[in-house]
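Weekly sync, protein design subgroup
Attendees: M.S., D.O., the rotation student, P.L. (late)

Item 1: inverse folding check
M.S. brought a backbone from last month's batch and wanted to see whether the design step gives back something sensible before we order anything. D.O. pointed out we never logged the input encoding, so this time it goes straight into the notes. Structure tokens as presented (511 positions):
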């Protein structure tokens, strides 16, 4: 008897169903996971290369990154609103109505990228003065941000087209193009940060004559290298979406759709709350890092080590949440409401299992991994105590993040934003700061452990509230819809069937 038939007999139907859906989810999530790692790799390259130049340059890049990274993530979240819109249209077989919606995202990305670039160039100096950043660090950081600002429209273009491609259940381009951006970033960083002398020290007599006199730009060079990689990624994504046959039925680049208020409103209705929620989460960790800074350098170092380790292994649950948005919205678009509910909760269970595996990894190998970061006995001991809290942190964070991903698939993003604000700030930060500085009853102040316990409390509350919301939304008779009424002549002409309909399952099979 063939193995597949034996499996069908031995496994209950719900388990076979779960296995098939989990496979589809992982096929979407793994490339997203790789793409996230490439973006993290750019940050690592910036820190390592400027750190070798001088401590001042390293501080300047670190401070500058704390400004542009939240802004970029806000753009990412806002443009992520395109993903469930595209995926739902794809599931419904209305791929001919996708093009105009993608073009609205491109208009929004152009405006957002330009505005963020101007903010980084014009407002960085006043912000650094308000933050009491040392003048030498502030000057170099302003130079670094001036370089990064040039690349903001390029990365906004990439993010918009990536959201479109993800919605088409085609997540691999973000991985390959992310690797391309990393491949540009590393040599450009070295060349522009260290100049001709650095290249000569590396290559010796093989140094090209034209590079020998290139000045060392330090932090400014790091910013320009980042901008070059951003534009490379944006243009590469544009070329790929234009030439790859997977997008042919959408006819994305046949003609440009002018701005349409109704379609822009649809995208902002879904995407803007996502952007705000992500921005709130990022700023929460930034504020906690600033508060921890008052507890001493040992505590700061241990906090950063523990947070870096947990952030690295959390990439897969994060990718699962993004993939879950695609799967839920695609299934809803196909009119399979009960199946969408199964897809959502199956994804939540898979994320929990992933977090449990990560927790076992932390418990078994946490001390060894910490040893790669530092040899300081005090830092290692404190970081290890935080790792035990990080196990609970992983479980709550995985649950709330994937429930949020499922709710994005239902386009229920405004309540998601409110839950995030309440849980992170009113519970997580407030409780954490109280435990850290005042303790509780007869319990003395807990220091950095108090902030981590507060984070766990906030994430747990978020998971509970999002779980209740997902239960209500997934059982509703009429799932939320943001489909705008657009009676323009061009819109009506787009409803004509296009050749070669494509489905999300076709995309998965082509991978």
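Designed sequence read out in the meeting:
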């Amino acid at each position: 008897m063939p193995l597949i038939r034996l499996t069908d007999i031995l496994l209950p139907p719900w388990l076979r169903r779960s296995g098939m859906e989990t496979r589809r989810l992982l096929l979407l999530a793994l490339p997203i996971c790789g793409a996230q790692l490439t973006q993290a790799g750019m940050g690592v390259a910036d820190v390592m290369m400027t750190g070798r130049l001088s401590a001042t340059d390293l501080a300047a890049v670190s401070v500058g990154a704390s400004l542009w990274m939240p802004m970029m993530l806000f753009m990412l979240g806002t443009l992520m609103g395109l993903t469930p819109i595209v995926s739902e249209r794809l599931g419904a077989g209305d791929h001919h109505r996708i093009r105009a919606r993608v073009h609205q995202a491109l208009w929004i990305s152009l405006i957002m990228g330009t505005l963020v670039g101007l903010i980084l160039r014009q407002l960085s100096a006043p912000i650094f003065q308000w933050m009491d950043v040392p003048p030498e660090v502030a000057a170099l950081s302003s130079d670094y941000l001036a370089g990064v600002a040039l690349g903001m429209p390029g990365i906004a273009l990439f993010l918009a087209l990536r959201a479109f491609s993800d919605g088409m259940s085609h997540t691999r381009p973000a991985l390959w193009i992310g690797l391309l951006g990393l491949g540009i970033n590393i040599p450009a960083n070295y060349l522009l940060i260290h100049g001709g002398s650095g290249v000569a020290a590396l290559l010796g007599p093989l140094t090209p004559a034209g590079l020998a006199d290139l000045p060392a730009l330090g932090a400014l060079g790091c910013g320009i290298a980042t901008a070059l990689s951003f534009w490379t990624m944006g243009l590469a994504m544009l070329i790929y979406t234009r030439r790859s046959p997977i997008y042919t039925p959408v006819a994305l680049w046949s003609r440009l759709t002018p701005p349409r208020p109704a379609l822009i409103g649809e995208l902002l209705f879904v995407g803007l709350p996502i952007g705000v929620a992500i921005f709130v989460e990022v700023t929460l960790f930034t504020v906690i890092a600033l508060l921890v800074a008052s507890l001493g350098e040992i505590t700061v170092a241990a906090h950063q080590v523990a947070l870096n380790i947990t952030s690295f292994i959390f990439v897969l649950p994060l990718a699962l949440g993004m993939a879950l948005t695609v799967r839920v919205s695609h299934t809803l678009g196909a009119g399979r409401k009960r199946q969408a509910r199964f897809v959502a909760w199956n994804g939540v269970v898979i994320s929990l299992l992933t977090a449990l595996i990560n927790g076992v990894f932390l418990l078994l190998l946490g001390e060894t991994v910490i040893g790669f970061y530092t040899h300081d006995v005090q830092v290692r001991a404190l970081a290890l105590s935080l790792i035990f809290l990080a196990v609970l942190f992983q479980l709550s964070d995985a649950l709330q993040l994937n429930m949020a991903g499922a709710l994005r698939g239902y386009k229920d993003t405004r309540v998601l934003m409110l839950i995030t604000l309440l849980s992170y700030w009113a519970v997580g930060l407030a409780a954490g700061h109280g435990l850290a500085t005042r303790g509780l009853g007869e319990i003395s102040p807990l220091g950095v452990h108090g902030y981590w316990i507060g984070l766990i409390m906030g994430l747990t509350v978020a998971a509970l509230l999002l779980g209740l919301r997902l239960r209500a939304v997934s059982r509703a008779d009429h799932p939320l819809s943001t489909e705008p009424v657009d009676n323009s002549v061009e819109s009506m002409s787009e409803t004509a069937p296009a050749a070669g309909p494509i489905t999300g399952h076709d995309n998965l099979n082509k991978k």
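Discussion: The chain has 18 helices and no strands. The radius of gyration is 24 Å.
Action: P.L. to compare against the previous round before Friday.
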